[in-house]
């Protein structure tokens, strides 16, 4: 019996499970039947049926982001494979380990008019860290250990580069098993991934350059708790205040946050960087969500900037004076252990005082404005998050408002966002994937366009009963564009930028089977967020996007006044 398909997928899926893959998003189709049926028979991997391939890709991305493990997504041939491309791009630039297995027709059917057949070789281009194309071999045509070896390479490449990898499998009919699925063949390779330590001479030179300086640490998004902990140790050794991105892991949990400056996002906007200008900057990881901070750094190329990152080159303004490409936690710990002289104590104290003043000003300004405002909703959500929560914030305004209002807290809270490519697509699916993998409450904060863009995922949420609370700020359009120069062209602004969508999200979610309601006030938001759901639910909060620029201006004025600047 030439049961080549299942001999291959049995060993491939077994090895993926053995190597730690625990979640797979599976979209329906005929050509990927061998993968679907093998995954269904593998008890170590949860096989999540997702009807829409684009949604499935983002669902898998969400499970990988929440769990830290590579997640699998598989689909049939043709345009189904193309639908995964947005999630592959986000995984590439967001550094999320994603394993994509696409099913394909045999090569003799290419360019011959066969249905649902396109050229899938390297379909994701440079977005995939590694891509491989294979006709599934007949028994005896390849080494029995080939599937397990491929699985090991997929896992290793996705973890080493922290990104997407792609395996395109060309299956021949018959696509259903002719008997029981064969047992896996061959041993599964052991994958050991080490860390790249920084050169000792480089650490010595960097430490000497930072010693005694009035410096700052700018901590970007980090998915590794070890990097956050090492950042705290380096800050303590150098005496450097830390301006932390919401996704850095430094604003919540058990870290010593003595040097983590509250309201760093607000401070970057409101002149404090000019008054307390650093003599050196130690950047960790990707750029922060704070555009004012990155703009200030770009405008001051004379300030030495040391950038610590494990790979890649994330210097959009070409201001990095020294780049360390090694394990970030190991590099920061080496700098902390180098015996540098710390900055004067008055330096950190001045930043901490500015942070406290800014944090209080943001809190008071938000509280003084009639609820709801968009920063007010973000603050209400953050206040009510239970310990152990994951807050998934949409790109655009929600993650910025989280950065503005989130106060450091001892609660163990993880903040995540799809800020690799910074798109709004697939947000609902990503949050649902996170809910499938996260051991605790998941709250998703979105704008109405993010919710509408991925509206079909709410049907998946209802069908699978995934416990997630969606808080949607409904300002009937694209609020962030009011902050951009396009707002100065009223003749086209609403039609092409404001884009009012007019969708009744409560009615639509209800029709899809999601319990939904409109918030009548502040308590509705906090009570909904604080209550652990047993399934998906949606709460909309209606705001006025045309007033949002003024809301942010008043908050900025309050921060400036609190730090001695003009109101």
- In CATH, the architecture of the largest domain is 3-Layer(aba) Sandwich
Relative strand content: 5-15%
Q: Which descriptor suits the 3D outline?
A: globular
Give the count of structural domains. 3
Identify the CATH class of the largest domain. Alpha Beta
How would you describe what is shown here?
Helix content is 41%, strand content 15%. The chain has 22 helices and 17 strands. It has helices spanning 4-18, 33-40, 53-67, 79-83, 85-94, 146-160, 200-210, 225-238, 264-269, 272-275, 291-299, 328-336, 345-368, 374-384, 397-405, 427-437, 448-453, 456-464, 490-498, 505-511, 522-530, 548-562; strands at residues 23-26, 46-49, 71-75, 98-104, 130-135, 164-170, 215-219, 242-244, 280-284, 305-309, 322-325, 390-393, 414-416, 442-447, 469-474, 516-518, 537-542. Strand 7 (215-219), helix 8 (225-238) and strand 8 form a beta-alpha-beta unit. The longest helix has 24 residues, at 345-368. It is globular and about 80 Å long.
């Amino acid at each position: 019996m030439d049961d080549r398909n299942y001999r291959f997928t049995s060993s491939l899926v077994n090895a993926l499970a053995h190597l730690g893959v625990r979640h797979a998003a599976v979209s329906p189709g005929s050509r990927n039947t061998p993968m679907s049926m093998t995954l269904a028979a593998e008890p170590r991997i949860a096989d999540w049926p997702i009807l829409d391939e684009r949604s499935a890709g983002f669902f898998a991305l969400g499970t990988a982001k929440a769990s830290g493990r590579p997640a699998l997504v598989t689909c049939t041939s043709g345009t189904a494979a193309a639908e995964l491309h947005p999630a592959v791009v986000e995984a590439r630039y967001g550094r999320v380990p994603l394993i994509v297995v696409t099913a394909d027709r045999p090569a003799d059917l290419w360019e011959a008019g066969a249905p649902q057949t396109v050229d899938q070789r390297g379909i994701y281009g440079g977005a995939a860290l590694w891509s491989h194309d294979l006709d599934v071999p007949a028994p005896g045509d390849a080494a029995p250990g080939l599937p397990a070896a491929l699985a090991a390479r997929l896992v290793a490449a996705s973890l080493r580069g922290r990104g997407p990898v792609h395996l395109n499998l060309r299956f021949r009919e018959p696509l259903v098993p002719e008997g029981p699925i064969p047992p896996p063949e061959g041993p599964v390779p052991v994958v050991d991934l080490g860390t790249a330590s920084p050169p000792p001479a480089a650490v010595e030179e960097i430490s000497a350059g930072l010693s005694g300086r009035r410096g700052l640490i700018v901590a970007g998004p980090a998915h590794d708790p070890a990097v956050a902990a090492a950042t705290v140790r380096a800050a303590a050794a150098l005496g450097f205040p830390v301006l932390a991105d919401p996704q850095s892991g430094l604003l919540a949990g058990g870290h010593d946050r003595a040097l983590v400056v509250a309201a760093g996002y607000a401070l970057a906007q409101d002149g404090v960087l000019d008054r307390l200008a650093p003599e050196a900057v130690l950047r960790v990881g990707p750029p922060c969500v704070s555009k004012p901070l990155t703009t200030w750094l770009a405008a001051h190329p004379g300030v030495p900037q040391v950038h610590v990152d494990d790979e890649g080159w994330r210097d959009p303004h070409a201001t990095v004076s020294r780049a360390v490409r090694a394990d970030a936690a190991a590099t920061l710990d080496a700098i902390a252990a180098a015996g540098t002289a710390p900055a004067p104590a008055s330096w950190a104290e001045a930043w901490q005082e500015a942070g406290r003043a800014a944090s209080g000003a943001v809190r008071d300004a938000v509280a003084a404005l009639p609820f709801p405002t968009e920063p007010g909703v973000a603050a209400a959500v953050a206040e009510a998050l239970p310990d152990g929560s994951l807050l998934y914030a949409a790109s655009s305004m929600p993650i910025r408002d989280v950065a503005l209002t989130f106060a450091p807290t001892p609660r163990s809270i993880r903040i995540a966002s799809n800020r690799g490519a910074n798109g709004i697509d697939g947000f609902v699916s990503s949050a649902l994937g996170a809910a499938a993998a996260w051991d605790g409450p998941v709250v998703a904060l979105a704008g109405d366009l993010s919710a509408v863009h991925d509206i079909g995922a709410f049907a998946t949420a209802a069908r699978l009963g995934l416990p997630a609370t969606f808080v949607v700020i409904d300002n009937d359009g694209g609020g962030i564009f009011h902050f951009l120069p396009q707002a100065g062209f009223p003749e086209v602004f609403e039609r092409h930028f404001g884009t009012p969508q007019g969708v009744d999200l409560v009615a639509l979610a209800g029709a899809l089977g999601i319990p939904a309601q409109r918030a009548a006030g502040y308590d509705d938001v906090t009570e909904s967020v604080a209550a652990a759901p047993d399934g998906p639910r949606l709460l909309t909060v209606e705001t006025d996007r045309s007033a949002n620029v003024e809301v942010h201006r008043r908050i900025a004025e309050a921060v400036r006044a609190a730090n001695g600047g003009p109101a």
